[in-house]
């Protein structure tokens, strides 16, 4: 694999990123109305007040002027101030990144590990009770809306059993190690929801991938050589079946910063997903633009990693 | 296989960890060394920031009133003016000025004394910079003069009762907020235009700067001090030990030491948190969730008058900009009367609000507006009577000449096809629109509904490109502002549809200049009757706020106003409850070792732990067996 391959991929990634930057700018401005009028009545804002506020936000300038300013500022790392809170967008996002990384990152990790293990075992013993049960379970959790699953878990674990907090990231009552335990308490239900929501996908993809590889001639050859069953699986089948799952893993980690909007909303988890939800409601353009740019950049970056890694793992990819 | 064994062990660890992490309710603690904590659940975060110039909705005012003091308060009894930082206010005979006494025992949370200069500065700043949200309480360009350490005078350009409304504002420390007061003195009369423009520009800049200040470390004089604000999570307050009123927590171990206002985007989660004893109070419940709480014997449900009304506002056209697209038939009182007769207000209350609202008749509410409210006499009301509606339209010449089921104008031209704007983030608006469609069809009127967000509705409202809005108003306790909504001069301002009636305008101005309360009440009664008859808007219902609280943690809730359905929290001056509530008892408080809600705590983790070990053992032994089989 040569530098030309990597350079080509890098260039494509940069082009995509710029396209995302431009697209997002216009996308949010297509939405009806403006970010000031939303609560105009409750805030007793006269029409003159609204105009004054829009002028302060620079939203009365012609769209091309706004766009040039936006691109210029973005390249300087200046995402502006949130229309809603008046604080820098970088601070808004900075405060929300870790809860999201913790929740979505951990859930993705758990779902990947368990999903892959379940998929491998199910495929290897196709038709067994484990396979039937895990496939059924995977399909159920895969097709189950995460928001709904979260609500059911709240109903059971909060309303009936009273075991876990109903929402939030921390109770604010603890410090030091107690605070870590406190965060873990709050993390448990949303993490369980997301893990269950993701696990089915990994299990199904891994299962079908292993099933495909299982019938390949090199697997039959390995068996014919007298290699033990578990070694055939571990050293011959699984490594060759991992490629599609790897795509999924990279793809999922790319979305980590996008947050899990519904689950964060259901559990009042103060992450980027909840921030996105609120920013859409409030038409907070600077925050929306920054979040979308960040999550797009991450998806592009992880896809780039995957592309480059594929080149190493499978020579057919870089030759194609 | 090691992987499966590892997985089994990991599952057991997760299970066990889950058991260990299981929570205990976080509410009131009343032992000597533990603070008494009050947890309030609300359905949204602060609207903007900690800036008191930008309060709007949700818990904004709760935050404001806990951290800051208002100049004057609303009395808990009937929402009339009550003393706070301003302890006395006496009008001059001509009501052109008010002499006010200011308390001298208050201090800011940063240790500086709160002075009469702070109070005068705050009011001057509002008046001079025309601060949105508050300027309506300061009519006729008032100025404020400090007389001595405890006295100031409110000077008005015209006679006014404004201070007694009461004028609502938070007293702010000049040593923090004075940095935005940079415009200087206004230019002298006859000054060059450039000087006037420069001054106006400076006012604009000061106003914007003050409103955009993040105020991350608010300095106030209120009963609590903001300890922490975690966006999207909670506001945490601790008792202000130097509060001028004397904070009860310094003496009474059952009084509240700390307050958490927790934000729940998900109301179901908030309800479950209340049931589990994780919060003490829940506000903003939906009817379904509210009703689900009624079976819990430790939870008290409370239907409070929200002081808001839902309405249909007709557009009369004439909005500035000339974009109005109002239907000419709506100018005709007969058409508006027929529409009023076609509406089954009770059905809207039953089906759309699930009986949590009550049928409304006037633009003042019986709860919040108290004695200002006029129960509209039945002979002035247009009750539900579709037959009468059809008769009125027939008599007025609106007939269906082409047989398509829709009436036309008397001259046979335009059909009666009205565009209604329903607003999807306003309670009941969309549901009301759906029912309205049927009501109007029954009387030969076609209705086209456009559903939008309130921000888009604000734009449409300003342009006048609509026939009717299905919206709401939440008036102040004093009627002055809501009366202005029907005045001709508010076309392009607060008027919903540019209604114009000289008779009404005269009443509006008369009440504004009438300083005698009883006389003013009579004028306002006339205004309410006039609106009920002339129908610029049809008041449909008065909403309720659905609140619930745990009775086993705190006691002593006081409704405001002091009527059965007064608000308990998140209303005008309801923050007094944070000082008056007391933990029920040491034994009853969740988290203090009682059996009622924390009883599960010892055996459930043990059970889960044992279960986890059992599952892990089964998995591992099965795995071992399978591997033996394979080998």
Account of the protein in words:
The complex is a heterodimer of chains A (320) and B (631). Helices cover 75% and strands 0% of the residues of chain A. Chain A is mostly helical and 320 residues long. The longest helix of chain A is centred in the middle third of the chain and has 38 residues, at 177-214. The mean pLDDT of chain A is 84. With 631 residues, chain B is of the alpha+beta class. In chain B, 49% of the residues are buried. In chain B, α1 (2-21) packs antiparallel against α17 (603-630), α8 (333-342) runs antiparallel to α10 and α14 runs antiparallel to α15 (517-534). Chain B contains 17 helices and 19 strands. Chain B is globular. Chain B has helices at 2-21, 60-67, 116-129, 174-177, 193-212, 267-275, 287-292, 333-342, 345-352, 386-395, 429-442, 454-463, 480-484, 502-513, 517-534, 577-580, 603-630; strands spanning 37-42, 72-74, 81-83, 86-91, 97-102, 143-148, 151-155, 224-230, 234-239, 258-263, 281-282, 299-314, 358-359, 417-423, 446-452, 468-473, 537-550, 554-555, 582-583. The chains are: A mainly alpha (320), B alpha+beta (631). At the A-B interface, α2, α4, α6, α7 and α11 of A face α1, α5, β10, α6 and α12 of B.
Task: Give a concise summary.
The complex is a heterodimer of chains A (320) and B (631). Chain A has 13 helices and no strands.
């Amino acid at each position: 694999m040569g530098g030309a391959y990597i350079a080509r991929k890098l260039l494509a990634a940069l082009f995509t990123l710029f396209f995302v930057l431009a697209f997002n700018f216009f996308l949010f401005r297509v939405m009806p109305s403006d970010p000031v009028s939303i609560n105009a009545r409750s805030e007793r804002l006269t029409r003159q007040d609204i105009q004054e506020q829009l002028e302060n936000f620079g939203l009365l300038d012609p769209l091309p002027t706004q766009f040039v300013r936006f691109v210029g500022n973005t390249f300087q790392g200046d995402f502006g101030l949130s229309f809603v809170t008046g604080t820098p967008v970088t601070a808004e996002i900075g405060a929300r990144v870790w809860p999201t990384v913790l929740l979505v990152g951990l859930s993705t990790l758990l779902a990947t590990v368990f999903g892959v293990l379940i998929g491998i075992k199910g495929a290897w013993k196709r038709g067994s009770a484990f396979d039937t049960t895990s496939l059924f379970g995977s399909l159920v959790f895969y097709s189950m809306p995460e928001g709904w699953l979260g609500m059911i878990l709240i109903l059971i674990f909060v309303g009936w059993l009273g075991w876990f907090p109903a929402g939030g990231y921390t109770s604010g009552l603890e410090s030091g190690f107690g605070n870590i335990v406190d965060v873990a308490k709050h993390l448990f239900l949303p993490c369980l929801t997301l893990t269950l929501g993701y696990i089915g996908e990994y299990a199904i993809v891994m299962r079908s991938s292993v099933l495909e590889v299982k019938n390949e001639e090199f697997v039959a050859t390995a068996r014919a050589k007298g290699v033990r069953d578990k070694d055939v699986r571990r050293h011959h089948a699984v490594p060759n079946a991992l490629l599609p799952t790897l795509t999924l893993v990279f793809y999922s980690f790319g979305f980590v910063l996008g947050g899990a909007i519904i689950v964060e909303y259901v559990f009042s988890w103060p992450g980027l997903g909840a921030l996105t939800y609120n920013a859409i409601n409030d038409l907070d353009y600077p925050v929306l633009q920054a979040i979308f740019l960040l999550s797009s950049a991450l998806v592009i970056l992880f896809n780039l990693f995957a592309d480059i890694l594929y080149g190493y793992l499978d020579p057919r990819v870089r030759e194609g | 296989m090691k992987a499966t064994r590892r997985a089994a062990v990991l599952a057991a660890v997760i299970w066990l960890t889950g058991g260990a992490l299981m929570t205990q309710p976080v509410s009131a603690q009343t032992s000597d060394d533990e603070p008494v904590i009050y947890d309030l659940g609300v359905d949204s975060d602060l609207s903007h920031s900690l800036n008191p110039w930008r309060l709007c909705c949700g818990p904004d005012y709760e935050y404001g009133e806990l951290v800051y003091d208002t100049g004057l308060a609303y009395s808990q009894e009937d929402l009339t003016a009550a003393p706070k930082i301003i302890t006395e206010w006496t009008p001059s005979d001509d009501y052109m000025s008010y002499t006010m006494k200011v308390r001298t025992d208050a201090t800011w949370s940063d240790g500086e004394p709160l002075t009469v200069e702070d109070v005068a500065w705050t009011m001057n700043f509002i008046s001079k910079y025309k601060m949105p949200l508050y300027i309506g309480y300061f009519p006729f360009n008032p100025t404020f003069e400090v007389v001595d350490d405890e006295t100031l005078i409110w000077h008005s350009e015209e006679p006014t009762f404004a201070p007694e409304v009461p004028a609502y504002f938070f007293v702010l420390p000049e040593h923090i907020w004075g940095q935005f007061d940079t415009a200087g003195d206004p230019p002298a009369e006859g000054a060059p235009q450039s000087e006037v423009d420069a001054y106006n520009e400076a006012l604009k800049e000061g106003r914007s700067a003050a409103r955009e200040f993040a105020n991350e470390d608010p300095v106030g004089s209120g009963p609590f001090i903001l300890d922490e604000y975690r966006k999207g999570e909670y506001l945490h307050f601790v008792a202000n030990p130097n509060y001028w009123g004397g904070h009860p927590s310094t003496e009474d171990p059952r009084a509240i030491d700390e307050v958490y206002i927790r934000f729940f985007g998900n109301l179901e989660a908030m309800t479950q948190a209340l049931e589990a004893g994780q919060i003490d109070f829940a506000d903003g419940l939906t009817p379904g969730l509210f009703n689900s709480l009624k079976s819990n014997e430790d939870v008290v449900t409370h239907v409070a008058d929200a002081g808001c009304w839902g309405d249909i506002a007709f557009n009369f056209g004439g909005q500035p900009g000339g974009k109005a697209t109002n239907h000419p038939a709506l100018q005709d009182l007969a058409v508006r009367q027929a529409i009023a007769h076609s509406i089954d207000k009770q059905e809207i209350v039953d089906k759309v609000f699930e009986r949590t609202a009550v049928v409304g008749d006037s633009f003042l509410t019986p709860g919040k507006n108290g004695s200002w409210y006029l129960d509209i006499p039945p002979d002035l009301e247009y009750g539900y009577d579709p037959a009468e509606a059809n008769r009125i339209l027939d008599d007025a010449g609106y007939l269906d000449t082409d047989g398509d089921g829709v009436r036309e104008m008397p001259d046979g031209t335009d059909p009666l096809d009205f565009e209604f704007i329903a607003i999807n983030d306003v309670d009941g608006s969309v549901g009301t629109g759906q029912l309205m469609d049927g009501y109007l069809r029954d009387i030969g009127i076609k209705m086209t509904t456009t559903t939008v967000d309130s921000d888009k509705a604000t734009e449409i409202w300003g342009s006048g490109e609509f026939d009717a809005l299905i919206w709401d108003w939440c008036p102040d306790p004093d009627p002055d502002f809501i009366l202005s909504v029907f005045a001709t001069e508010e076309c392009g301002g607060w008027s919903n549809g540019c209604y114009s009636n000289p008779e009404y305008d005269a009443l509006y101005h008369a009440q504004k200049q009438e300083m005698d309360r009883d006389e003013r009440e009579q004028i306002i009664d006339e205004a309410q009757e006039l609106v009920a008859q002339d129908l610029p808007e049809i008041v449909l219902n008065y909403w309720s706020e659905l609140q619930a609280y745990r009775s086993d943690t705190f006691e002593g809730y006081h409704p405001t106003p002091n009527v059965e359905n007064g608000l308990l929290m998140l209303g005008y001056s309801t923050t007094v409850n944070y000082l008056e509530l007391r933990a029920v008892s040491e034994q009853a408080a969740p988290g203090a070792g009682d059996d009622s809600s924390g009883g599960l705590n010892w055996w459930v983790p043990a059970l889960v732990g044992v279960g986890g070990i059992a599952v892990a053992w089964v998995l591992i032994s099965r795995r071992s067996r399978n591997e033996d089989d394979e080998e």
